[in-house]
Request: fold
Amino acid sequence: MAVLGGIADAVAQSITAIRKRTVRKPGVPHKDDLVAIEIHELDKKNPLPPGELIPASRDLPPSFDFERLTRFMAYGFIMAPIQFKWFKILSKAFPLAKGSGMVAALKRVACDQLVFAPVGLACFFTFMTIAEGGGRRAIAKKFQDVYLPALKAGFMLWPPVQILNFRVVPIQFQLPFVSTVGIIWTAYLSLTNASDEA
Reply:
């Protein structure tokens, strides 16, 4: 889980960097594109005013944030045993039998989404905010701004994924399937968390 969280955050940070780059108009040189000037162009008029030879950091794509990556990996490391125990509880409470497999799968998904998903998401935003150095006000703001939209997005994504996982995906491929979707979900959470910081 820690590695998957790290991969997801790296994907999210890459998406953010690509977005920042594509905001610029293609083909139109930006005032901070001194690095892109070819050597033979150096004798031409300097496109930047004196004192602005180094681009302003607000105009450049963000540098890779290794602390953010570490926070995501730490969260995954902490949550892995909790999620493992939770899925064991679900499998004992709602065993999948041949005759009642769909009903048990639906009960599992409903219980997971109504109990674990809201609590897990609350833990995620609380952990990330505290790890970023935020206090009670920052946590309250995070919940006010991004908790409900993220919870709604989770309700749209995970029920169909889990039903498909429990009913269609062969058992040996269930963990890789959910892990792959989990990378996408964690990347979404990373982007959501970072957008609130901005």
In short: Residues 31-43 have pLDDT under 50 and may be disordered.
